[in-house]
Amino acid sequence: MGIGFVRGFLGTERGIVGPVAEFTYFRAGRIVAGAVLLVLLALPAAAMVFDRVEPFDISDPGSEVERAYDAYEAATGMRLEPEVLVLVRADGETSAGGEASAEAVADRLGEIEGVARVVGPAQDPALTSADGDLALVLGVLDAGDVRAETGERVAEEFAGDENAVAGGIAVANHQIAEEAEQDTRRIELYAAPLLLLLLFGAFRSVLAALLPLVLAAFSIAVTLALLTAISELVDIDLFSLQVVTGLGVGLAIDYSLFVLARYRAEVRRGNGYEAAHRRTVATAGRTVAFGALTVAAALAALIIFPQQYLSSTGIAGGLVALLSGASALIVLPALLALVGPRVDPGFERTAPGEDPPPDPLGGGSRFWRLLGGRVMTRPIPLATLALLLMLAVSAPGLDGDLTSPDGRVLPPETSAKRVFDSVERFPDLAAGQISVVVPAGAAGGLGEAREELAGSPELEPAGSEKLPGGGTRLVYEIQADPVSDPAQARLEEVRAAPWPEGTLVGGRTAELADQRASIGDYAPLVIAVVVLTNLLLVLVTIRSVVLPVISIALNALTVLASFGVVVALFETEATAELLGASAQTGIDVSVPVLAFAVVFGLSTDYGIFLFASIAEARARGHGETEAITIGLARTGRIITSAAVIFAIAVGANAFSDLVLVKEFAVAVAVAVLLDATIVRGILVPAILKLLGGRAWWWPGSGRRGEG
Q: Which of 59, 72, 270, 523 has the smallest number of Cβ neighbours within 10 A?
C-alpha cells in the first residue's frame, strides 16, 4: 500500500490508466450519451440551487459574539442590535402619499414581518442629522429571523421611495446576495465569447475550441445539481456558487488544454488515432487525474473551518475540481475518439511508411526554449531577480488588514450603500456599539469592571437594560468605525475588564474580532492539511523527495505575492477606483483563506505538469540541462495559455459590483499569472539547474536521475 500502490493504481497501464484508455475509446458513444443524459437530468436541480442556498455568512457559530447574540435572543426574543436603518428626508413625501415623517416610516417599518422593535428620533435625538434634514429609523429583528429575508421585505417596502431609503446590515445582506446571483449569471455569460476566442487562437479549430467549454458546462451543471441535493443536509453559502462557476470554467479549460495538446501531438507520430488516444490518456490523462486530486484536496480542506461560507466553498470547490478532472479524463477522450481527425483538420499526420518523429512532442515553443536556454546559462542572477520581484509585490501584504463585509462593499446605486454613506451626517450618532451581556445573578459584580472602563475616555457608557430572567445588558459607544483598529482596541479593553463569569461581549466590532480569531485558530490545521496532501500527491506523481519541497515553497511565495498585490490595489484610492471600488480599510477576511486554497492547489497542478514533462524528457535520455529546457519549451505555452484563460474565467468576477468578489477574483488571477510566468518560467528551471540530478532523488532507487 502507500505511495507505491497509489502511483501504480493511477500512473501505469497496469493500473487504472489502461482500462480508462480502452473504455473511453471502445465505449465512446455510450460515454457521450451518458454524459448528455446526466446533464439533462442535472439541469432542473441545478436551476433550483439559487433558491436553496443561504445568505453570505462568515461567522463562527461557537464564537463569543455568537453566544452573546444567542443569550440575548433567548432572554428577549429579539436581536441584540438594530440591523435595519431607514433614512428619512424630513421635507419629502413617502410613496404612500403622506408626510415623510420619521413617525410614519416607523409605523410602516414596525408592520413588516420579522421586525420586533422600532426606534426613531422621538426615542433617540441622535437619530436626527445635524442640519435637521434627515432622520434615521432603526429596526431590531425578531430572534431567529433570517436576516436577509427580513432585509428583502424591508427593501421591497421602501423600493422606489426616494424619501425613505432602506439600509442596514439586513438590507445589505439581501442586496449582497442579489448582486452575487446577478454577477454569477451575467459575468460568465460575457466571459464565454472571449474564452471561446482565446481557445480558437490556441487551437485554430472551432471544434477544439468548443470542447473545453462543453466540458465546463458539464462539470458546472452536475456540481450545481449535487449542491442542490447536499443543501438538504448542510447549509450551502450563496457565494460558493461564484467559486463553482469560475473554477468550473477555468479547470475544465485547463485540463482540456493539457489533454488536447497531447492528443494532437501524439497524432503526429502516425501510428493511428487509437495509439494516440491510449498514449494521451496514459500521459496527459494521468497528469490531469493527479492535478484534479490536488486542487480538490486543497479546496476540501476548507471544510475544516466552522464558517458556512468557507466550509460550503470547500464542498463546492472540491466537487467541481473532481468533476472537471473526471470530464477531462473520461468524457473528453470519448469525444476525441468520436471526432478523430476533425479536432485538428489542418494537420497532416505522418504518412504510412514514413518514420515517425523520434520525439512526439517536438521541441515545443521557440520562445520558451530560448527563455529556458537563458535561464540555464544564468540561473543565479535570473532566479535572484525573479525572487526579488516576487518579494517586492508581496511586501504590501505585510501591512494589510482584514475586515468583514457591510454596506460599503455594495455599488453606489444600492439603497444600503446610500444609507451607509449618509450616516456620517449624524454627528451625535455613535459610530459603533459594544454590548456586554451579563448572566442572571451576576449583576452585583459589575462595579469593578465598570469602574475600570470608566477611565477610558474613548468608551462612553450608553445605558443598561434589565433582561427578562435577571440578566443585564450594558452598552458602550465608540467614536470609531466598528471594523477599524481603534475600535478593536476598545473591544480588547472591554473584554479584558473583570466581568463576572459567563459574561459575553457582542456587537459589530466583536464580530470582526471573533471572525479573525476563528480563522486564525483553524488556519494552521487547514494549511497543514493542504501542504501535506500536496506533498503526497507530488511525491506520488513525480517520485522525488526534493521536488515536492520546492513546489510547496514556491506555492507559498505565489500566495504571498497575490495577497500583496490585492492589498496594494484595493487599499490605494487610485487603483481601487480603476477597479470600480473605493479604497478599502482592509481586505475581506475570507479572501486570503479562499485564495490560498485555490492558488495552492492550482500552482501544484501546473508544477506537476512541468515536472512530468521534464521527467519524460529525462527518461528519453536527455541530459539535465536539455531536459529542463525541453520540458519548459513543451509546457510553457500550454501552461501560460491555461493560466491566461483561467485568469479570465475567474478574473471576470473583478467586474462584479461587490468588492469582496473583486478581491478574490484579482487575487486568483494575479496568482496564476505570476505562477505560470515568473515561477514556472524562471524560478523552477533555475532551481532545477542548480540542483541538477539531486532534484530527482528518491530513496532506495539507486539513481539520482530517474523521473
A: 523
Query: Long-range contacts: 268-272, Cβ < 8 Å, 24+?
Result: 268/347, 268/349, 268/350, 268/356, 268/357, 268/360, 268/362, 269/349, 269/350, 269/356, 269/357, 269/360, 270/349, 270/350, 270/351, 270/352, 270/354, 270/356, 271/356
Coil vs helix vs strand at 439: coil
Per-residue pLDDT at 606: 87
Q: Compute the distance between CA of residue 138 and CA of residue 146 in angstroms, rounded to an integer.
A: 17
Instruction: Give the CA distances from residue 438 to residues 59, 300, 500, 572, in Å, rounded to whole numbers and listed in that order.
Output: 22, 39, 7, 42
E strand spans, 387-509: 402-403, 432-438, 460-466, 472-478, 504-506
Residues of the chain with pLDDT under 70: 1-18, 90-100, 145-148, 181, 183-190, 269-271, 343-364, 405-409, 427-428, 430-431, 443-444, 700-707
> In whole angstroms, how far apart are CA 332 and each of 90, 358, 659?
64, 27, 36
Helix or strand (DSSP H, E) at 314: helix 308-326
Distance, C-alpha 562 to centroid of its chain: 13
Q: In what order do the strands lie in the sheet with 164-167?
A: 115-119, 134-141, 84-89, 164-167
Contact assessment for residue 316 and residue 244, using Cβ atoms and an 8 Å cutoff: yes
Residue 317: predicted pLDDT:
92
Distance, CA of 495 to CA of 516 (rounded, Å):
16
Report how far residue 617's alpha carbon sits from residue 631's, in angstroms, rounded to the nearest whole number: 7
**Range list of H helices, 111-205:** 147-157, 169-203
Rounded CA gap, 189 and 179, in Å? 15
Single-letter residue type at 247: L
List the grid coordinates of 489: 482596541
pLDDT at residue 579, as a whole number? 85
Query: How far is Cα 452 from Cα 448, in angstroms, rounded to an integer?
Result: 6
> What is the 8-class DSSP label of residue 285?
I
Q: What is the pLDDT at residue 452?
A: 87
Measure the CA–CA gap between 338 and 24, rounded to whole angstroms.
10
Using a 10 angstrom Cβ sphere, with 0-12 exposed, 13-18 middle and 19 or more buried, the burial of residue 433 is: buried
Q: What is the per-residue pLDDT for 282? A: 86
Instruction: Give the Cα-Cα-Cα angle 599, 246, 557 (nearest 5 degrees).
Output: 10
- Spatial contact of 592 and 671, defined as CB atoms under 8 Å apart: no
Nearest Cα to Cα of residue 101 among 127, 140, 139: 127
C-alpha 518, offset from chain centre: 18
* Region for 283 from its dihedrals, namely left if φ exceeds 0, alpha if ψ lies in -120 to 50, beta otherwise: alpha
Tell me how far apart the alpha carbons of residues 33 and 329 are, in angstroms, rounded to a whole number: 16
> Which contacts qualify for 380-383: CB closer than 8 Å, 24 or more apart?
380/686, 380/690, 382/682, 382/686, 383/682, 383/683, 383/686, 383/687, 383/690
Residues in the chain: 707
Residue 8 pLDDT: 47
Output the CA–CA distances (angstroms, integers) from residue 435 to 106, 438, 461, 505, in the order listed.
24, 10, 10, 6
Closest by alpha carbon to 241, among 224, 260, 258? 224
Q: Which residues contact 473 (CB under 8 A, 6 or more apart)?
A: 72, 80, 435, 436, 437, 438, 464, 465, 467
